[in-house]
Amino acid sequence: MDGGRRLLRSLKGAQSGQPFARPAFAGLQDDGRSNPRGAELSSYSVFAPRRMAAVRRRPGFVRTTLLGAFLRARATGFVLATLFLGGVSLYGAVRGGQYDAFVADHGSPSDMVAKVLGFDIDLVTIMGSRGLTETEVLAAAGITDRNSLLFLDVAEVRDRLRQIPLIKEVSVRKLYPDRLLIELVERDPFAIWQKDGKLLVVATDGTPIQELTDQRFTELPFVVGKGANERVAEFLKIIDNAGDLRSRIRAGILVGERRWTLKMTNGLDVKLPESDPEAAIVQFARLARDSRLLDKDLVSIDLRVPGRIYARLTEEAAAARTEAMPRNKRRGAPT
Q1: Which tens digits make up the pLDDT trace of 199-251?
Q2: Which end of the chain is more exposed for a tag (fewer CB within 10 A), N or C?
Q3: CATH class held by domain 191-332
Q4: What is the DSSP letter of 120?
């Protein structure tokens, strides 16, 4: 029966000349009587409504659905069990230290995957570095071949580099897929400051930059004493007035945070007054040039009293001078 409730007939039966069979309905037998419309009833074929066919298929459908649900439940349980066991294993590795040792040797798993995908750090460009070497910058930044560019924390790298006193400003940028750019602005080394037996390189504002460990900054002005690192500019102004003697000045010692004593290369101490030390150093430079004071056996020159110069001889020179004095004057000489 088609969608218009018309009976479908076989074309083969029509071509052979056989009469079309009358369909019979379920539950009725052919008793030779005709239906009210005069159509003969036949048991040749039985047509069942579609909804009945659906009902007959339902038990199999239910079994299939239950089987799928069962399999899905088993799969979910397997995944959960795997995750649980993996978590337990990872927790044990973390507590036992194996995971940290693995990361230290090979990098984190995420970095390893990123490097396989091509996001390793193949080139690091460092700009603005003058006092620091590339090795020092990389070591301070914590960048090694175990890092990947994808998972590198640039904020953490910046914070690490800012902990170096010599670095004033720093910028870190990723250039995908495998380049890293580090731009530095360093503090200018201004002087060497001796404090508590240590030699420190200080900036213009007196900020200690780093400890002096090599010969890179030995030509810088050398100051000693509490607060001397913040008064380097004052010391430089004094030695600028020394003229030709500037190269003979080894260091400036700030005494009591009030006045300067100059330590010469031959060991001579030149004590400057608290007020107008520039004029005093000009006077000393002229006297040293005319009288060749730096060639004499002197321990110190005291210029603290305006208009007067006090010189102290070495012990050997003082003893020789005493011996050379007449005996009558020697008796009155101070001991």
Answers
A1: 999 999 898 988 888 787 888 999 999 999 999 999 999 999 998 899 999 99
A2: C
A3: alpha beta
A4: B
